Amino acid sequence: MTGSATQGIKTVLHPVSDLEKAKAVYSALLGVQPQADGPYYVGFEAEGQHIGLVPGGGPQGMTSPVAYWHVPDIEAKLAEVTAAGATVKEPVHDVGGGRLVATFTDPDGNVLGLLQDR
């Protein structure tokens, strides 16, 4: 196997229909208040994981949670998974703060994410 290993799943984004109601449930579940709390995104840090709430699925139109695998080189890993049979859903783009993300689908249509912090 070539390429670089991932750093594991550290980020999971959940599409929600009501951000305020979801924020209350996830605050209770995780036992912490959100570190990022805005009208378009609410993010929690809990036990080394980032849990994000995206109203209406966000710009990607998510319909189910997406797990993001953290990688040291997002372009290389996206090329590696597409060469192995994955299909790019959302190309690499900067979401702010030096964070790059991309999504792809596996052969069964499951959506997976890649994330690189610069």
TrEMBL record:
<dbReference type="InterPro" id="IPR029068">
    <property type="entry name" value="Glyas_Bleomycin-R_OHBP_Dase"/>
</dbReference>
<dbReference type="InterPro" id="IPR037523">
    <property type="entry name" value="VOC_core"/>
</dbReference>
<dbReference type="Pfam" id="PF00903">
    <property type="entry name" value="Glyoxalase"/>
</dbReference>
<dbReference type="GO" id="GO:0016829">
    <property type="term" value="F:lyase activity"/>
</dbReference>
<feature type="domain" description="VOC">
    <location>
        <begin position="8"/>
        <end position="117"/>
    </location>
</feature>
<dbReference type="InterPro" id="IPR004360">
    <property type="entry name" value="Glyas_Fos-R_dOase_dom"/>
</dbReference>
<protein>
    <submittedName>
        <fullName>Putative enzyme related to lactoylglutathione lyase</fullName>
    </submittedName>
</protein>
<keyword id="KW-0456">Lyase</keyword>
<dbReference type="InterPro" id="IPR052164">
    <property type="entry name" value="Anthracycline_SecMetBiosynth"/>
</dbReference>
